[in-house]
Amino acid sequence: MTAPAHTSLPRTIARIALGAFLFAAGTAHLTVARSEFTAQVPSWLPFDADVVVVASGVVELALGAGLVFLGRYRVLVGWVVAAFFVAIFPGNIAQYVDGVSAFGLDTDGARLIRLFFQPVLVLWALWSTGAWRDRRMLRLRRATAAR
Asked: Among 15, 84, 93, which Cα is nearest to 56's?
């Protein structure tokens, strides 16, 4: 089994910065911004909004730590982080559609602009971890493990 190719210094810095961002967001979910995050949970979600905020905060803490400390598994972590950003995107859409004000996003224009940042986060996760570049290596690992 081959190890993933090394990443450049800019990618490594971007990965660690994204990890720090996720860790800070996770901490905010559990502390100072809990009510702001609760306001953003879509009403159609069949779970208690506070449970969703706490759970997503814990996930963000874990993903942030994974990006910073699990460099050996950075390709897998990159895909998981990208999937997380895709999974929470419906909440951002619901905030726009429902006109929910939170985190200073108090106009439809501001909420609409925010939607365009989610794909940037997905690309950031994939680029900074080399996940897209090294996707073949991950497939090889899974195929080898299945044997």
From this structure: 84
Condensed to tens digits (0 to 9), the pLDDT of residues 56-107 reads 999 999 999 999 999 899 999 999 999 999 999 999 999 999 999 888 899 9
pTM for this entry: 0.87
Q: For residue 20, report the phi and psi dihedrals to the nearest 5 degrees.
A: -65, -40
Whether the Cβ atoms of residue 91 and residue 52 lie closer than 8 Å to each other = no
CA–CA gap between residue 26 and residue 59 (Å, rounded):
7
Please compute Rg for the chain using Cα positions. Answer: 17
Name the nearest CA neighbour of 22 among 72, 58, 53, 76.
58
Domain boundaries, the chain: 9-146
**Whole-angstrom Cα distance, residue 121 to residue 87?**
12
